[in-house]
Specification:
10 helices; 25% strand; signal; eight-stranded mixed beta sheet; alpha+beta; Alpha-1-antitrypsin, domain 1
Amino acid sequence: MFRILSVWLVTWVLVSSRYLASEAQIRPLTFAMRKLAFSTNQFGIDLYRALKVPKNEVVAFCPFCISTSLAMILLGAQGRSANALQQALYLWGVRQEDVHIAFHDLLIHLRDNLQVTPGHHIPDHLGNGNGGYRQEYGVQDFEILLFNSIYVQREYSILYHYQKFLHTFYNTSVHPLDFSMYGEESRLHINAIVEKQTKGNIKNILDQPLPKTTSVLLLNALSFDGVLDISGSTTNPTAEDVHRNSQYNQFSQGYNNHPFSLNHAFQPTHSRLPPIGGPGSYYAPSFSQAMTYAAATPYNTHNFITPPTRTRQGGLRHGIYDYLGCTGVEVPFRSGLLSLVLLIPSDTSSINMLETRLNAQHITDILGTMQSKNVILEIPHISFEDSPKNLTQALFRSGLVDLFTPGFAELLGMSDFRWLHITNLIHKINVNIKNGNNVNHQQTAPPSGQETIHMSLQDKPFLFFVIDNISGLAL
């Protein structure tokens, strides 16, 4: 009996070890993960429209960060609030328990599948007492730092099972602070945590004292640093860069002037990897991954733009889309796992049509239909820090008013206190997309005799997406 039991235990250990080893090498995408990535893209596009960005203003945000924060709230929401969240996040048709499993798996995907060189692995699960953990892998070509967390006024007790599931699915917890008595101290504490967890890239995420009436504060941030694969490129010293550092009153647009913010540290970083396929191929992206989602407008002095521009010549994926009134161009990052997708309106008046008609299915179709062309592209160096204005108002327009209303939020799966509600949601993004003109990477030349396409983004509005080529998620 002892021998049989020993053999069974050894067999189980060997099978489990082999499974874990194979899982560490590749983590396949489930249907729920693909559905979630697609839904997050559509949520991001809807949120961009709801922001009602003024003309000649640049705005950028990470829909995955914001949707993850809202999914944490969905974990404890009931009734109309839960239904409204599922509608806004395009999660109908997916069981609520599957939603959180999909978010968990997608976070793990960002950590594992984007880890390119196992030899550069740095010990993960770096514990911290401020919610979640950091994931860090040696990076040369791009780095993604995600931060999500929930803060609550300390008098409000949080249910144990909510804390348990929050830690299980999102590896974070709800952190009590005294906003009513120590608002300034709470602000400084949160700023210090975010700055530390994002390696100093996100500073002063809360630039004003929090209102004393703060109930629940959701806070999230993204720092993205990437190097484009621009082999054979030249630099135009007279061109301008996209550079913005946005300053504004974060709390002026909150419901009844109440703010809310979140903190959860999650940061996969990445090292070099040969591009997937060549310039003429594409690795089946069906949905977008943690990437930067941004909308840009005509670049002029009002947008704080400074020189220079990079020019790329060679095989780029390119397509013309008359229904959207735009031209699409894909520029890969050096790792080959991420791409910068640019949607450039045919003329200055077409930007409105593009913003009105674009949806997540169009993004998927564009990624699947672009062809390798001989393109000379003048693209500005993109570097800015932004925190979208009117984000809470945009969420109101998305049907989430009850979540921000005392007595109507129905967060009874989170706390027994009926009046608990979200006071505000604060989001900040730091993007730095650099030219990789020092890269010595040979590309397959476009077919001989192919027409050369000259494109310049100078003084033109355009949309850009940082796309995960594995999941299709748009950061």
